[in-house]
Design brief:
mainly alpha; 588 residues
Length: 588
């Protein structure tokens, strides 16, 4: 007699705690993170463009995480997909998804305005580079990524997270709050914490929709539309332009890319637009503007040449001055001078033309011409502009005409007292003229001080013999810019050569001098000079002679003045005699 067949042993359900932890770890980038790093390395080795690599890795990661979570639900928990909100979509879901999308966009726009209003310095231009990178992708790829994000995030952050945390905690509100917090936290590594704050009300609406319907289809639709909006908008605009009889939609796309800051995309679209209208002056002018922003001066000048050739008998002064400035930016101001002269001859009362020609004058070291052009710009300007007075003061200062420089800086300060450049430059003039109290007052007005401001104030204190205050300023400058050799070198020089023994510190001077040499790649004669002074202060005169000889060699290659060359040679003689160098005390 055959033995009776034992019935199948009932499957024991997996622990809800274990499966919840496992699903959350997968859905919120914990367990799969090493795999993402490996995939990133493999894709990077292919040489694929950056946005392509990011797209491939992102989509692959999201789809894999979604597959694992659904596998946990079906194979481990033995539950239906409806337990995470997945059901057959209905027309009602489509309508709710559209309504959710509209609500999300309105809530996001209002919340962003409030953030910018209350926190203008910290909540403006949030994740701008990431958003520009995303929105500049090809439309097809962008829509695919938006679809993958809509599916994966809603399954992980809504369907699975809220339902399983509700079972574990026994409280729906707590489950929803934890799921929302995890979702926002996952956005921080790539998008930043400010972006996570900005999207919080939008993500909350998705949570509320899921709690209300227990169906993530509407959430997926709304999520997809929100992420795909830049691409859907572009496609819709292109379609409207085409249906309206506009054969060239590339100009519109170029304008969109330009305002997003995507210069490469704008240039490509203007090029496509010019294929059908190769002699369109507006398109040539626009593309030249993008080429200017991209610093492609050769291409810009080429477009401007073509633009001017369209009507050589009546050249546009604005185009002429634009070409002149392109040559100026390219380091060829002499070539731009005839264009600037012709532009002003055609429009002799245009303040902007004089302003731009003054830059070319300065590039050619023609200070008197620059002052004359800025004076003409001031004369023909409809309102006073602090920048014109500031720049003329700067030219007077370069000519050592300090009284006129101060007059112009004073006028600039009256027009705009918040422009810190004015006080920084005026303080330099006051220092040069021995008006140290006035210089100190100007430097004290600069809030918050930058590395350059600390350096300027430190130099002022050093000239006045206030060495401890100078050292404090140089230390502050180093804190502001630790990888800039200028403040490091200044502090090392003062610590090595200060007339006041209380300020000198040979050990720290040598440490800073070596750091300054390293930052400047051991190629700057003045920095090597400081190293030699620090070595002499430590008593290592043999090394001081070696490096001072190197400093003299480098400085000679820079065509120094006779006085500077004499000072360098004098320090070398001191070190050969076994004596350190000391700065002369300030003049009384």
């Amino acid at each position: 007699m055959d033995a009776p067949i034992a019935p199948d042993r009932p499957t024991r359900p997996a622990s809800i705690y274990f499966t919840t932890f496992l699903g959350l770890a997968v859905g919120f980038s914990i367990l799969l993170k090493p795999l993402g790093t490996l995939l990133s390395s493999l894709v990077e080795s292919t040489g694929m463009a950056e946005y392509g690599r990011w797209s491939l890795i992102s989509v692959a990661y999201q789809l894999l995480a979604t597959a694992v979570i659904l596998g946990i639900v079906v194979a481990v928990e033995r539950k239906p997909l409806s337990s995470v909100g997945l059901r057959r979509p209905t027309l009602s879901d489509v309508g709710l998804g559209l309504a959710l999308f509209v609500a999300v966009e309105i809530a996001g726009a209002v919340f962003r305005l409030l953030l910018v209003f209350f926190f203008p310095n910290s909540m403006s231009n949030v994740a701008s580079s990431q958003l520009n990178s995303f929105s500049s992708m090809p439309a097809g790829l962008g829509l695919f990524i938006a679809a993958a994000a809509g599916i994966s995030e809603e399954v992980a952050a809504r369907g699975f997270a809220i339902d399983r945390l509700r079972i574990v905690t026994g409280r729906l509100g707590l489950a929803a709050a934890v799921a929302l917090a995890l979702d926002l936290a996952e956005h921080i590594p790539y998008w930043g914490w400010r972006y996570a704050i900005e999207i919080a009300p939008m993500q909350l609406l998705f949570v509320l929709m899921y709690i209300w319907r227990k169906d993530i289809m509407a959430c997926m639709i709304g999520h997809f539309l929100a992420d795909a909006l830049p691409f859907l908008g572009s496609l819709a605009m292109a379609g409207v332009f085409s249906l309206s009889g506009f054969s060239n939609v590339h100009e519109m796309l170029a304008s969109r890319d330009y305002w997003r800051g995507d210069n490469a995309g704008a240039m490509a679209e203007y090029t496509r637009a010019l294929e059908s209208k190769p002699n369109d002056p507006e398109l040539l002018k626009y593309r030249a503007g993008v080429e200017l922003m991209s610093r492609d001066y050769v291409a810009e000048i080429g477009d401007l040449n073509k633009l001017l050739s369209l009507d050589p008998k009546e050249p546009d002064p604005d185009v002429l001055i634009t070409r002149a400035m392109a040559y100026y930016y390219a380091g060829y101001p002499d070539k731009g001078q005839p264009d600037a002269d012709q532009a002003i001859a055609l429009s002799p009362k245009d303040a902007e033309l004089y302003k731009y020609r003054s830059y070319i004058d300065e590039g050619r070291e023609q200070r008197d011409a620059a002052i004359s052009d800025i004076s003409q710009a001031i004369k023909y300007s409809k309102r006073k502009k602090e920048d014109l007075y500031y720049r003329r003061g700067w030219d007077y200062q370069a000519k050592a005409d300090y009284d006129k420089a101060i007059d112009d800086y004073n006028e600039a300060a009256k027009i705009n007292s918040s422009d810190m450049r004015i006080f920084r430059q005026r303080a330099q003039v006051y220092t040069s003229t021995g008006q140290l109290d006035l210089a100190a007052a100007d430097l004290a007005r600069i809030k918050p001080p930058s590395m350059e401001d600390f350096m300027a104030r430190g130099a002022f204190h050093e000239d006045a013999g206030k060495y401890e205050l100078a050292l404090e300023d140089y230390n502050q400058a180093i804190a502001e810019a630790p990888n800039d050799w200028v403040p490091v070198n200044a502090a090392a020089w003062l610590l090595s050569t200060c007339p006041d023994a209380k300020v000198r510190d040979a050990k720290r001077a040598l440490t800073l001098a070596k750091k300054a040499c390293d930052i400047s790649s051991w190629k700057d004669g003045d920095v090597i000079d400081t190293l030699a002074a620090a070595l002499a202060e430590t008593g290592d005169f043999a090394q001081a002679v070696t490096w001072q000889e190197r400093a003299v060699e480098l400085i000679k290659a820079q065509s120094p003045s006779a006085d500077q060359q004499k000072e360098e040679d004098a320090r070398l003689d001191l070190y050969r005699k076994g004596q350190p160098y000391r700065q002369p005390p300030p003049k009384k």
